[in-house]
Amino acid sequence: FLTTPAHLYIRRPSPTTAEFTVTTCPPLTVPLRVALFSVLCVRVALVVGVVLTAYARLSPSPSSNPSSPSPSPPSSSSSPFLPLSSWDAVALLLQRWLDWLLASAAGQQCAALAAAPVLRPWWALGGVCGAAGWAAAALGRIHTTESLLVLRGLGIQTASSYGTAQGSLGGGGSGGSAMATTRETRFIPTEKIRDVLINEAFRGFEVSYCMVVVVDGEEDVVVVFPRLLPPRRIVEAVWRGVRGCLYEPDGGGSG
Fold first, then answer.
1. pLDDT score for 90
2. pLDDT means per 10 residues in the chain (255 residues)?
3. CA separation for the pair 106, 97 (Å, rounded)
4. pLDDT value, residue 252
5. Looking at residue 127, what DSSP letter applies?
């Protein structure tokens, strides 16, 4: 539901330009948007929980004393920020926000977790917080999208991104803004491109097909779609389209 096998979208703005996008993100329907928003809320809750748990261990909560009143939400107007430096003011406001959150029901659960006997050693608490942080980061990499942009006479650009949702894709792809997306790109000028080939790669006992770009002056080839390594039919379609856009006058080879 949240992800699909790698599939290909082809966009041709002009006969001399083509973009090939391979993604695991399904079309962003309303149920999928709701699910992705829920995943984002879970990520935020995990991060806030880790921060509150560590803060409860480092600083005793004022709400742990039943006789002390619960702290009110911080207000910039009630804080004497004028005599303080900007960093001191930010630190004071952050501390008041943390104290207010720690006094809530969820904050009390984090404080109880920090005070649990099994988590009393710092290494145990650090392991739990690290696992929660890793889970929050892993939830941000649900989808992977890799693209190849071909510009005849200029060169090709490879891009790889991953996140909870990707930007709009051509050819009826998913739409919407990207959330928590990391993007890596590289541009190869036309004069540096010696050839575009399909190679066989061995992964264990399996044979995979990948498209590579032979770059002049570099010993290693550039692998296209290195994270997803799509199936052979997608690799062949992209290879035909790239060569058609680069070398054929009519930009043929639609794939």
1. 78
2. 86 90 86 84 89 82 46 51 64 84 86 85 87 82 89 91 55 42 84 91 80 91 90 93 79 40
3. 14
4. 43
5. H
C-alpha Rg value of the chain to the nearest Å: 26
Q: What tokens does 89 get?
A: 């003011």
CB 99 within 8 Å of CB 79: no
Tally Cβ neighbours within 10 Å of residue 214.
14
pTM greater than 0.70 (yes/no): no
Which pLDDT score, from 0 to 100, does residue 60 have? Answer: 57
**For the chain, how many residues are written?**
255
What are the CB-based long-range contacts (under 8 Å, 24+) for 112-115?
A: 113/53, 113/56, 114/53, 114/54, 114/56, 114/57, 115/56, 115/57
Measure the CA–CA gap between 21 and 27, rounded to whole angstroms: 14
Q: What is the rounded distance in angstroms from the CA atom of residue 126 to the CA atom of residue 235?
A: 44
Q: Which two tokens stand for residue 224?
A: 């296209």
* Sequence-ordered strand ranges (E) for the chain: 7-14, 17-23, 143-151, 155-163, 182-189, 193-203, 206-215, 222-223
